[in-house]
Amino acid sequence: MKWGLVGASTIASEHMIGAIRAQAGHTVEAVLSSSAERGQAFATRNGIPHAFTDLETLLARPEIGAVYISTTNEKHFSQAMAAFAAGKHVLCEKPLALSVDDAAQMVEAARNAGLVFATNHHLRCAGAHLAIRQIIAEGRLGHVLSVRVFHAVSLPEHLRGWRIDNRDAGGGVIADITVHDADTVRFHLGEDPKTVVAQAVSSGLGEGVEDSVMSVWTMPSGIMVQSHESFTHPYAGSGIEVHGTEGSLFAQGVMTQRPTGTITMTDKDGTVQLNYDRHDLYGYGLKAFNRAVAGHGRPAADGVDGLKSLAVAMAVARSAREGRAVDVDYKGY
Description:
By secondary structure, this protein is of the alpha/beta class. The protein is about 35% helix and about 25% strand.
């Protein structure tokens, strides 16, 4: 399958182009950029045959079977809807859109067209998180009582830009990181957050958007989740803890784009470090996407997964803004 890149982005060049080309028979055919100069430079640097500034021109190429969307967040909805109308499968960066209603329209458009629609939630593709999920599913922690996610990092300077100063483009730490943590918790626990309470601040980096947020989520089962995301914590580290009646799991350095980090588990027999497969996260996700296109299974995170992680993030943002508990609205999904 030939791919079109909608967005000459850092994540495309650092992670996705290599992951696409690692799949047998898959190539990157074209890239779209709002700047002809930047798009051509990106294409030349990455060995891509064509660069376009017009989405319709890219989508009109019959050899392109799928597109990967990694533009700024406010563009995802219209670009994905155009791709579905053109008969292309879509792998879209998170968040899928700026509203859950728009995400729902994307899901329905893909279903009606019979196309594969996936969200690039890379964390659930990591060997560490697959191992954590398996440990929970096997009941090795007993009845799960609580989860703590700590994902407060220092946003690299080259990734700042619109993320720290443009709310209209979907900037802010909630849209950038909380949405990832929502998907990760859903992946591990197999249920969707019901109610959230949150506070958000600008702690030195955000210019008109929040750069730090803490929230507590209540799950339908009664499990409590505490989540902390930030752009301004250079030394905090990241990870996830899962605490149950029979044991506790501590994963550190696993909330990244790389197959890194450690997992330890403590129970009545003591503390042990666990081994896990350290495969490429994005390659794993691409394999699942391609199998789904071939009619075998589903993507690692489909459009509904993206909708639900967005719904949680939107509830966190609303709770922080209004200073009250907010029920998460999944629009019936």
